[in-house]
Amino acid sequence: MTLNNKVIWITGASSGIGKGLALELSKNYPCKLILSSRRQDGLEHVKEQCNKNENIAILPFDLQDYNNMNFVVEKALNCFGSIDILINNGGISQRSLIIDTAIEVDKKLMEIDYLGTVSLSKALLPYFIKKQNGHFVTVTSLMGKFSSPYRSGYCGAKHALHGFFDALRLEHDKDHIKVTMICPGFVNTDIAKNALTGNGSQQNTQDTATKNGLTVETFSKKMITAIKREKFEAYIGKKEVLGVYLKRFFPKLLHKFILKSQVR
C-alpha cells in the first residue's frame, strides 16, 4: 500500500510516537495529516516542525470524552474532506502495584486507552464502510500480548484493544477495511514520566528500560513500514519482543524471566 495522497489522522500527536510519525510522514510522504491530542499548543509546535504546513490540520480533543466522538469525526472529515487511515496512538500508561492502585485509576486507563479509542473508531467506521475502504492502525503495546508487574490496568486496556480490533477486522473484511495492531516495546518517550501511579498522580520519573529503548525516529520508520505492508500485527522493539513468542510457546519460562528482570 502506498501512503501517497492519503489523509492520515494521528491521535496522541503532540509528543512521543505520535509526534515522530507526524515528522516522518510530513518529510517523506506526499500525504495530508490531521494531528490530535488534548493540547493545542503541543499540536501547534509539532505542526511548525513538519514539512508542508498547508497539508497539516490540528484537531484537539480528549479521548476520555468518549461520548462525543461523532462530533470529533465530523470535524476531522471537514479538515480535508476525507480520511484514509486512523492511527489510534493516544493513551496513557501506569506504574503501580495492583494492591496500591485505586479503582479510579483502572477506570481512567480503560476510559482513555480502551473506550476512547474504541469510541473514536466506531464513530469513523460508518464512513469507512460507505467508502468501502479504510485502515485502522492501533498502537497497543507488547503489554497487550503479555503482562508485567506495575502495569495491571495498562495491560488490561491494551489486551482489550486486541480483542476488539481483531473482531472488527473479521466483521469488516467484506468492506475492505484493514486493521493493523502496532505493539511497541521500549521506546524512548515520556510515557513513563506521564504514567499514572496508584493514586492517579503522574510518576514524573523516567525508567532505565524506556530510556534505553528504540529512538522515536527508528520506531516511526519501522511502524510506517508495517502500515504500508498492511500487517495484522507488528512487534517493534529490541530483545523484549521475544516475550511474545515465549508467552505463546513457553509461558512459564516467560513468567520466570519477568520475575527476574525487575522491570519497573
Descriptive report:
- The chain contains nine helices and seven strands.
- Strands 3-2-1-4-5-6-7 form a seven-stranded parallel β-sheet, sandwiched between helices.
- The chain is α/β, with parallel strands linked by helices and 264 residues long.
- The protein has a single domain (7-261), classed as Rossmann fold, CATH 3.40.50.720.
- Pfam families: adh_short.
- This is SDR family oxidoreductase.
- Belongs to the short-chain dehydrogenases/reductases (SDR) family.
- It comes from Mangrovimonas spongiae.
Q: Can I get a quick summary?
A:
The chain is built from 9 helices and 7 strands; from the N terminus they run E-H-E-H-E-H-E-H-E-H-E-H-H-E-H-H. The chain is α/β, with parallel strands linked by helices. It has one domain (7-261): Rossmann fold, CATH 3.40.50.720.
Radius of gyration: 18 Å
How much β-strand is present in the residues?
5-15%
CATH first level: Alpha Beta
Instruction: Give the rounded overall mean pLDDT.
Output: 96
Helix count, per DSSP? Answer: 9
The structural class is alpha/beta
**Low-confidence parts:** none
General shape: globular
CATH architecture: 3-Layer(aba) Sandwich
What gap, in angstroms, lies between the N and C termini? Answer: 38 Å
Helices and strands, with pairings:
Layout: E1 7-10, H1 16-28, E2 32-35, H2 40-49, E3 56-58, H3 69-80, E4 85-88, H4 103-131, E5 134-139, H5 152-171, E6 177-184, H6 208-211, H7 216-228, E7 233-236, H8 242-249, H9 251-261
Parallel strand pairs: 1-2, 1-4, 2-3, 4-5, 5-6, 6-7
